[in-house]
Amino acid sequence: MTSNPVLSFVFSAASAKTTRAAGVAALACLALAGCGGGGPAAVNDYTRVGSITPMKSQFSATYPHDFPIHGIDVSKYQGDIDWQSVRQSGIEFAYIKATEGADKADPKFRQNWADAKAAGLRRGAYHFAYWCRRPEEEMRNFIATVPNDPDSLPPVLDVEATPTSGTCKKTLYREETIAQMRRMLEMMERAYGKRPVIYSTVDFYQSILEPNELSEYPIWVRSTKYSPHVRYGQRKWHFWQYQSDARVPGIRGNVDRNAFGGDHNQWLAFAGGERGTAMGYAPNAQTMAPMASTPSIPGSIASPVPQGMTTPRSIEALIAAAPPVDPDE
Question: Contact 300/154 with Cβ under 8 angstroms?
């Protein structure tokens, strides 16, 4: 997961009034850590993962070591990983890149998926959105790649601007992008029976999601210089990517490091305890957004996956069950 230095969003007229302030702030930010302004001083102690301290409100100065559960996210760029060493270092979870767009699968996914579980880590898969393909095509790729393991963490939809892409320099309009995201999130939930998580960079959040778009889904925020509330305001978060250049035993080179925004009990509830069956939990209101109720749809949290179901439903069934999307979107 990477941060994009250039913003490539254009707001629709319908959303301009409600997002004027966010748009001005986002257009002023050319880098993730930019826009220092008159906000709180930068937090420089983000590499320390130490003793467990009481939970703090996310709307005050928050440090990674305020949270006891830490993990990493990886892709092919980390190469061959010694997952036993990673686990022994204290890392408790990993999100592993599975797919990108409609036709790319990370070549290290299957190895990382199997080895991380064997080492005792809780792991989940993420999909990097490619805005020049239809949601159904992207989810066909993800579902074909990622097994439905009841012990896995909820899937993640990684949404970022891609202005430097050599193949997709599409301008992202707020309403159209939200509709595409919702389509993919709904299909993820139907396929895996777990409420998906949205990963968002600062620029994408400020231009597309701020303040409360798709707030029924847990959000994973990236903020490597400041506490999350400086960049994400009043939005409650579940995961915080606080370091992009961490060094972790078992991995050559740098890796992203993340904190889960709750205590051990909340982590067990989110991760499903020992069997991965309790994904719809009620988190601490100070640090994380509560799970919103959803319509009873096959495979959703409100309508659990049928017992014995071990593979995702076919993409054809998911597409048929999903509401139609305007072909001009």
Answer: no
The residue with greater pLDDT, 167 or 313, is 167
Amino acid at position 270, single letter: F
**H or E segment to which residue 13 belongs:** helix 13-28
Q: How many C-beta atoms surround the C-beta of residue 105 within 10 A? A: 18
What range defines the domain where residue 76 resides?
Answer: 18-32+44-321
How many domains are there within the chain?
A: 1
Determine the Cα–Cα distance for residues 259 and 90; give it in Å rounded to an integer: 12
**CA–CA separation, 229 and 234 (whole Å):** 7
Structure tokens at 135: 């949601």
Element (H, E) at 317: helix 315-321
Token reading at 36: 């220092």
Name the burial class of residue 282, with classes exposed (0-12), middle (13-18) and buried (19+) by CB atoms within 10 angstroms of its CB: exposed
Diameter of the chain measured on Cα atoms: 55
Which 3 state secondary structure label does DSSP give 246?
A: strand
Helices (H) and strands (E) in the chain, counts: 9, 11
The torsion angle over the Cα atoms of residues 257, 263, 265 and 267, rounded to 10 degrees, is -20
- Residue 62: the pLDDT is 80
CATH (domain of 130): 3.20.20.80
In whole angstroms, what is the distance from residue 227 CA to residue 225 CA?
Answer: 7
**For residue 211, cis peptide bond before it (omega within 30 degrees of 0):** yes
Strands (E), the chain: 9-10, 70-74, 93-100, 104-105, 122-128, 156-159, 172-173, 197-200, 219-222, 239-246, 255-260
Q: How confident is the model at residue 320 (pLDDT cuts 50, 70, 90)?
A: low
Active site residue 316: no
Annotated catalytic residue within 100, 138, 160, 189: 160
For residue 311, report the phi and psi dihedrals to the nearest 5 degrees: -125, 150
Q: Is 224 helix (H, G, I), strand (E, B) or coil?
A: coil
Q: Residue 97 — very low, low, confident or very high, per pLDDT cuts 50/70/90?
A: very high
The pTM of the full predicted model, rounded to 2 decimals, is 0.71
Is residue 1 assigned to a domain? no
In a domain, 39, yes or no: no
Phi, psi of 70 (to 5 degrees): -130, 150
